[in-house]
Amino acid sequence: MPDLPPAEAAPLHLKWNRQLWYTAGHQAAAKPALEAAATASPREVVAGRQTTIRVKFTAGPEGVPKGGKILFEVPMGFGGIYNYRVQGFILPTGTTPGYHASVSVRCSNPAVRPDLAVSLNTTAVHTFPVMDVVLQGAGLSPGDVLEVIVGDPEESTIQAIEYAMKTTWTVLVDWTGQGDYRRIPESPKVRVVADRAAAIGLVAPAVAAVGERIPLKVIPQDEWGRNLSEGFRETVELEPLSSGLAVPPRAVFEPADRGKKIVWAEAKAAGLHAAVAFHKGLALIGRSNPVRVEPAPTFRVYFGDIHIHTIYADGAGEIEEAYEFARDAKGFDFCAVSDHDTAGRRGPEALAERSAECVRRYYEPSKFVTILGYEWSRKCGHRNVYLPTDAFEPFFIKGIRSPGSLMARYKKREILVIPHHPKFLALMDWNYRNNCTQRLVEIFSQWGCSEEGREHSVVAGLKRGHKLGFIAGTDNHFARPGAGRRGPRDGAGIAAVLAKSLTREAVWEALRARRTYGTTGARILLDFTANGLVMGSISEKADPEAPRALCVRAAGQDRLSRLEILKNGDVVASLPAKGYEDVLEWEDKTPLAAETFYHARVEQEDGERAWASPIWFAPE
Asked: Which range (116-130, 509-523, 598-612) has the least confidence?
């Protein structure tokens, strides 16, 4: 293999960051693939367990010259998502391993001296690792094998990502060592599978009519509380916690079920009901969410997560995996993937095309609702944009740098714009107001609670005249709706809508009407009214002398600890709650001198919380 001609001196190793890697990938995608091959072993690992991954690159007919580089990307989350923001979770051999993984490299050609460097770029959402191998001494001849061992067992193994998903160990070749990036026909993949079941989830419809036959989703989950245990082959016992709900005595899991089992119950009597699922031999037990049974429900309550990122932007996991996890592992009613419009990894057009395709493919009226969306993030704050369509259209448009220009793009369209983490990361600028399209705010996510605080908080926005209903979401970057940053209940925000049916049109109408609330992950039932108006309502010509009668009704998955009513952001009524359900009523007899907003919040004994959208009163 001939050496490359002399070139201007350049650093032996680049200090890789996310944007440099995406740029290299885009450059490589525009060129013919380099005839070479790469494999990864083992092909399958168990989520969350320590392992060793061996990635082998085999040079093709062209070889790779001396001075060239072989670049390997470690999939986001390997090393443990508990540590994916911690710089140094993957280190070259010879450093102190501790929890961290060690990396080594070797070559089948003894004349090649591979020089390894690991670049780490810690962003706001993850640590970005690239292994950069420079060929010293000689180049790779056809058939030579370069092997990188991640989690070298002689030093310290690596923890597999805790999420069950397909992971790609992307390989690029810098042919000249000067930025001449080439891709190979196919980068190797490692499938991460769920561990054995360590918990049982039981999900029921939140609202049902008397006499209605309702589905119960029995969900075996692994020890991380996230993954569907597809290999579960057991019989789970079922029991109602009241006579008003009739459930079958057991759920028998067959191989064809792949961990997904739906059994049918009957809502026999009005009231609040729940059920439990248990397996005595495995010491597994799970309590369902509360089910409110009414003679003729006006609205149903549906749960979901509409703030999810995937590998198409700055995350991991495919869009398809996000929808399947929401539907099967979480038992959600609706979901939206909202990748960044700039879509750094795979490009904006590919993102828009795949997003629309998946929204069409996974939508099942009365079973599972999908919504088309993307994230628009600029210095003035981060906002998600949602559209009531499943048709392809470009997300990214050059020149849209302000909220005003974003809204102007859709001035003849019905859209929803939802600010998120307003007091974290990119602080929200509440100077721009558009109550026609910007109708909701994400009050809670993995970044924390944005309800209260200074000028960037949700309450601050409400005091500035914004008419914002509440939802919660995760901002999960692993294609895992409803899963928090570190664990299932750490930033695992979800949204609830009060809709007439489980269709895209009905869910969209509820979001537009602000008939929404957000929780930290628990499926809390929350009802908030004022003078008979439902959450999210606006009374524009209220009698200033008439009192406002407010009522909060809540039912939890755990025992409730407190119910509160707030007026213009201040607590005006509070009730130390008892049991799984409670009611707080309060009347405001103060004359209505100016526009006033009320909202409610509840808390369970386990710390889970929920926030009901405000109700506004403006005097005549």
From this structure: 116-130
Query: How far apart, in whole angstroms, are the C-alpha atoms of residue 472 and residue 446?
Result: 10
CA separation for the pair 31, 293 (Å, rounded): 60
- Rounded Cα–Cα distance for residues 517 and 534 (Å): 11
CA atoms of 593 and 135, how far apart (whole Å): 76
CA Rg, the chain, in Å? 27
For 234-278, how does the pLDDT look when each residue is reduced to its tens digit (9 = 90+)? Answer: 999 999 999 999 999 999 999 999 999 999 999 999 999 999 999
Q: Which of 229, 241, 214 is nearest to 333 (CA)?
A: 214
Q: E-assigned strands of 461-580?
A: 469-472, 494-499, 516-519, 525-530, 533-534, 538-542, 548-555, 560-567, 570-576
Q: Could you give the CA distance from residue 72 to residue 38 in angstroms, rounded to a whole number?
A: 10
Tracing tokens 């993949």 back to the chain, one arrives at 189
**Average confidence (pLDDT) over 68-82:** 84
Q: At a CB cut-off of 8 Å and minimum separation 6, what does 258 contact?
A: 228, 230
- Exposure on the CB side of residue 181, measured as CA atoms within 13 A: 19
Residue 552's beta-bridge partner residues? Answer: 528, 584
Contacts of 428 (CB under 8 A, 6+ apart): 380, 381, 382, 419, 422, 456, 461
The helix/strand/coil state of 587 is strand
CA distance 470 to 520: 12
For residue 305, give the nearest of 449, 512, 519, 452 by alpha carbon.
519
Assess contact for 214 and 299: CB atoms under 8 A.
no
Which pLDDT band holds residue 16 (cuts at 50, 70, 90)? confident
21 in helix, strand or coil?
helix
Among 144, 132, 134, which Cα is nearest to 62's?
Answer: 144
Q: How far apart are CA 512 and CA 524, in angstroms?
A: 21
Q: Which amino acid is at 192?
A: V
Q: Which residues pair with 304 in a beta bridge?
A: 334, 495
Here the tokens at position 81 are 């998502």
Question: Which residue in 440, 380, 382 sits closest to 614, CA to CA?
Answer: 440
pLDDT of residue 167: 93
Beta bridge partners of 564: 574, 601
Q: Which of 317, 274, 302, 286 is nearest to 219 (CA)?
A: 286
How many CA atoms within 13 Å lie on the side-chain side of 415?
21
Phi, psi at residue 135, to the nearest 5°?
Answer: -85, 110
pLDDT on residue 33: 94
Q: H-helix or E-strand containing 192?
A: strand 189-193
Report the distance separating Cα 267 and Cα 213, nearest Å.
Answer: 6
d(CA 260, CA 122): 37
CA distances 337 to 304, 351, 368, 394, Å, are: 11, 10, 14, 15
Output the pTM of the full model.
Answer: 0.93
Helices (H), 262-417: 319-324, 348-362, 403-409
Q: Which two tokens stand for residue 250?
A: 């057991």
The token duo for 189 is: 């993949």
Q: Which two tokens stand for residue 500?
A: 């007439």
Place of tokens 């245990």: 229
* Residue 42: cis peptide before it, omega within 30 degrees of 0: yes
